[in-house]
Amino acid sequence: MTPHGLLGSAIRFAAGVLPDRLLARLMPPALYWNPDEMGIARAPQTAVRLLVGPVNSAGQGNAWARAAERLEGVGAVDLMVTDASTARFSFPADVYVPATGYTFARQWRRAQREAIRSGFTHLLLESGRYAYGSVPFRTPREVAQDLQRAGVKVALLWHGTDIRLPGEHAARVEDSPFGERGDYPAGRAEIHERNARVNREFVGRTDFPVFVSTPGQLDVERSQWLPVVVDPDRWASPTPVLERDVPVVVYAPSNSPMKGADSIDTDLTALAAEGLIEYRRPGHVPSAEMPRLYGDADIVLDQFRLGDYGVAACEAMAAGRVVIGHVSDEVRRIVAQQTGRELPIVESRFADVGTTIRAVLADRAQYRGRAAAGAEYVRAVHDGARAAEVLAPFLGVATR
Q: Can you give the pTM of this predicted structure?
């Protein structure tokens, strides 16, 4: 865990101003990391050298790096800061950096800064974070601008919570987790609001290109949709859909207060009691186990609060499952406009989930077709090729 409060402030100040030799004597070894122990993101030997980091939310930093490498002359590396909450999901990354070392290790910070300035040509900076560790007395924006002055081309990338304004979302989305019908903790919503406003100021005070991971975030100034990436072959399942007498329904939201509602559990438990479905509601599931979980289902429930879709929905569609969730009309319009395809997610509000599942069970043939369309949609939009096309102008290369 990262120290906070007065102690954390004191440690951060010391890490910024004390000589290295004295700092090593005063600070606990766990807080004084050697660069070699932490790992350095070093540039590949290609004409275009992209660094993605430091968040790797849902493994997407790594996935976008691999997508960029589809482009001629592009090599990419992703860096992920890890702590207890991210480690349990075990997402792949090229370089892992412990959160405490990222925050306090001055030797590593210096080494990583030099590796970026001297080696990389481009930086895709996630979530408005520091590019190479927390720098005392400087903001992430100032650090990014320092790299830009050194000749590194910088773009900003936002995942959702880092740029979404809870107040505005509650005003326009009926089932928003931040509104009267939601139960998202008020204190956490206030923190998200403050952070999002800081990040939007970051966007407004720079001219960096801006990418967002889902179409529902395109209200961000000058933003472009960079589609999330999943491996269709990894998620493909041989299990037929909706052929069992009692279909399996899986509901595994990554953030229940943000994306779901208690009434969904109530409705699905009632359907299971009637013998209509088998209901599976797992807790935290490691990334490596998710293909089996989705692949053995018939129906997968996505999110019902945000009016958007992301990695989880794409994974379930890639598995050839019937995916149910709430995606706003505006997001569906954007998808159709930008891809020429209809989003195959079955529409439902959280209050209507039980009714929606009954409709699916009443017309299995139709929804088997919807499941097949979902797998095709992911191969067309989210297998990495489209993401590479979106990144190509920023990287200054042509698409193949």
A: 0.89
DSSP structure class, residue 316: H
CA pair distance 53, 50, nearest whole angstrom: 10
Contact 151, 120 (CB under 8 A): no
Return mean pLDDT, the chain.
Answer: 89
In the beta sheet, which residues pair with residue 224? 211
> Using one digit for the tens of pLDDT, what is the confidence trace for 282-333?
877 888 899 999 999 999 999 999 999 999 999 999 999 999 999 999 999 9
Residue matched to tokens 């992911």: 378
Tens of pLDDT, residue by residue over 105-116, are 888 999 999 999
Q: What is the DSSP string of 12-69?
A: HHHHHHS-HHHHHHHS-GGGS--HHHH------SSSEEEEEES--GGGHHHHHHHHHT
Token digits of residue 114: 């030099």
CB-based contacts of 1, cutoff 8 Å, min separation 6: 83, 84, 99, 100
Tokens 């100040």 appear where?
A: 13
| Cβ pair 259, 303 in contact under 8 A | yes
Order of strands across the sheet that contains 299-301? 278-280, 248-251, 299-301, 322-325, 346-347
